[in-house]
């Protein structure tokens, strides 16, 4: 990857529940454009959103060249765990975060599991 491709990566993407997305949008991470394939950098997940829609959004966010970090609620990552675990690229970095109703469980975090394997734990 060239240095120029790193400079393009300026956005956070969010796959999360309504409370988390609202908080992050209020913090200023949201972007909405008319560029095809890059219309917005967030998806609010509720009970009506299917696993296939979550997978499609995950795929879209992880293939975009302007996203540096993908924040995903851990309970949502569990719904597409096979996809999250299979993602090995350096960018975007995938960070599993807690939500108001679902506390963080380090045993489920795929990145933390990889780090533990590297250190032989």
TrEMBL record:
Record has Ion transport as a keyword: yes
Q: Name one GO cellular component term.
A: fungal-type vacuole membrane
InterPro entries in the record: ATPase_V1-cplx_f_g_su, ATPase_V1-cplx_fsu_euk, ATPase_V1_fsu_sf
What is the originating organism of this protein? Babjeviella inositovora NRRL Y-12698
Oligomeric state and partners? V-ATPase is a heteromultimeric enzyme made up of two complexes: the ATP-hydrolytic V1 complex and the proton translocation V0 complex.
The record's annotation in Pfam families points to:
ATP-synt_F
**What SUPFAM superfamilies does this protein map onto?**
AtpF-like
Identify the keywords attached in UniProt to this record, alphabetized.
Answer: Hydrogen ion transport, Ion transport, Membrane, Transport, Vacuole
Q: Which family does it belong to?
A: Belongs to the V-ATPase F subunit family.
Ranges in coiled-coil conformation: none
Where does the record place it? Vacuole membrane
Please give one Gene Ontology molecular function term for this protein. Answer: proton-transporting ATPase activity, rotational mechanism
Q: Topology relative to the membrane, per the entry?
A: Peripheral membrane protein
The task this protein performs is described as: Subunit of the V1 complex of vacuolar(H+)-ATPase (V-ATPase), a multisubunit enzyme composed of a peripheral complex (V1) that hydrolyzes ATP and a membrane integral complex (V0) that translocates protons. V-ATPase is responsible for acidifying and maintaining the pH of intracellular compartments.
The protein depicted here goes by the name: V-type proton ATPase subunit F
Q: What is its main location?
A: membrane
């Amino acid at each position: 990857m060239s240095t120029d491709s790193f400079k393009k990566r300026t956005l956070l993407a969010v796959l999360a529940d309504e409370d988390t997305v609202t908080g992050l949008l209020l913090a200023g991470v949201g972007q909405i454009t008319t560029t095809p394939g890059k219309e917005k950098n967030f998806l609010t997940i509720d009970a009506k959103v299917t696993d296939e829609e979550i997978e499609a959004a995950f795929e879209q966010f992880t293939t975009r060249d302007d996203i540096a970090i993908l924040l995903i609620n851990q309970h949502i990552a569990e719904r597409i765990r096979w996809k999250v675990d299979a993602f090995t690229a350096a960018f975007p970095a995938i960070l599993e975060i807690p939500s108001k109703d679902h506390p963080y469980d380090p045993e489920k975090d795929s990145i933390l599991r990889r780090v533990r394997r590297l250190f032989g734990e």
